[in-house]
Amino acid sequence: MKKISLLLIVVLCLFCQAKADDALTLTAVTELTPTAIQSLPVTTAAPSTVYDLLGRRVGVLGDRLPKGLYVANGKKFIIK
Fold first, then answer.
1. Domain ranges for the chain
2. Which residue from 1, 5, 40, 51 lies 20 to 30 Å from 16 (Cα-Cα)?
3. Strand, coil or helix: what is 13?
4. Buried b (16+ CB within 10 A) or exposed e, 32-52
5. How far is CA 17 from CA 9, 28, 75, in A?
6. pLDDT, tens digit (0-9, with 9 covering 90-100), for 9-42
C-alpha cells in the first residue's frame, strides 16, 4: 500500500508541476525512418570447398572427385 501511495504522490506532483509551468508539450511521431540499418550487402554463393577426411583441400563441389569420403559445408558425403 505504501508503494502505491508513494507512486501516486510522485505522479500527482509531476502533473501539478507540468500544469504550473504550462511548458509540457507532447509531440506525435509522424515519420518512421530507420536509423541503424540502411541496406544489407548481397553476397554471391561461392562454390563450396571440398576436403578429404585428413583436412586436405581436394576441390570444389561439382568437380569430378575420385571415390572416397569427403567433407563440404560441414557435412560428410560419399562418392561411390
1. 48-80
2. 1
3. helix
4. eeeeeeeeeeeeeeeeeebee
5. 12, 22, 67
6. 555 555 555 555 566 666 676 777 767 777 777 7
Contact 52, 70 (CB under 8 A): yes
> How many Å apart are CA 69 and CA 49, to the nearest integer?
14
Is residue 65 within 8 A of residue 50, CB to CB? The reply is yes
Model-level pTM? 0.44
CB 50 within 8 A of CB 38: no
| Distance from C-alpha of 49 to C-alpha of 59, rounded to nearest angstrom | 6
Distance of alpha carbon 80 from alpha carbon 74, whole angstroms: 20
Distance (Å, rounded) from C-alpha 58 to C-alpha 65?
8
Catalogue the long-range contacts made by 53-62 (C-beta closer than 8 Å, 24 or more residues apart): none
